[in-house]
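Suppose you are handed only these lines of text.
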Amino acid sequence: MKIDVVSIFPGYLAPLRESLIGKAVSRGLIEVGVHDLRTWTSDVHRTVDDSPYGGGPGMLMRPEPWGLALDALAPLGGPQPRLVVPTPAGRPFTQALARELSAEPWLLFACGRYEGIDSRVAAYAADRMVVDEVSLGDYVLAGGEVAVLVMVEAIGRLLPGVLGNAASHEQDSFSDGLLEGPAYTRPEVWRGLPVPEVLLSGHHAGIARWRRDESLRRTAQRRPELLGAVSLDDADRAVLEQ
Ligand code: SAM
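From them, the structure of the protein bound to S-adenosylmethionine can be written out as follows.
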C-alpha cells in the first residue's frame, strides 16, 4: 500500500518510521511519503492560512496550496488515491472503516491545522477521487497529524504480512463486533490472583466458549450499544440474560 501524508508539521509523522509500521515500511509492505504543505506556497512567508469569510475566531487553511499539493501528488488523468481528511465533523473512524481502507492501494491523508481546511478542497478533490472526511472521536485535536498516526497504525496492521500472526487481528476487539475479553499470561498465580482455570485446561472448545462469554459480558457492561449489530445464538443470549 502507498500512503502519502500532507502536513505543515512533517516532523510530527516521524513515528511512521518506528515499530510495526516502520518495520512494514522497511520491508517494502508499505510505502510512506510525508510532504510539507508549504512546498506548495509561493510567498516569502510560505503562508497556508487566512481568516474565514463571514468572520469568526481563528484561521482557515487556504485552498491554493492544497490544490497544488493534490495536483502534484496525484496528477489529473493519472491513478488517483483515496483521500482521507481527518476532521471532528467527519464520520467516525471504526475498525470496519480501517478494514475498508486497508483494501485500497493508495491513501492520501490531508492534515488540517488551525480551524481546518477551506471546504472547497474536499469538494474539488471529490471530482476525481474518493474523499472520506473522518473523525477520530467526539473531541477536538489541534491538528490532523495525530489522527493520521492512529489511522495508519490501525489500517497498516491489517495489511497482509504486517503482523507476524494474522490471527491476532482476526481476534481483536471489534472484529466480531464485540470487545475482547480479559487475557492472561504466565505465571499461573500472580500476587494471589490465579488465571481462570479453563484457560489451563487445554480444552479448546471450552476455552473458545469462555472467551465468547467474557466478550459478551464485557461488551454488555461497557459498550451495550455494540450488541445490536452482533448476531447472537441461544448460548450467547443465555449469557447475556444471566
Ligand atoms: N474547527 C474545527 C471543528 O470545529 O470542526 C476544528 C479544527 S481542529 C482545531 C484542527 C484540525 O485538527 C482539523 O482540521 C483536523 O485535521 C484535526 N482534528 C481535530 N479533531 C479531530 C478529530 N476528532 N478527528 C479527526 N481530526 C481531528
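What can we learn from it? The longest strand covers residues 82-92. The pocket of S-adenosylmethionine is lined by residues 86-89, 111-113, 115-116, 135-137, 139-144, 147 (CB under 6 Å).
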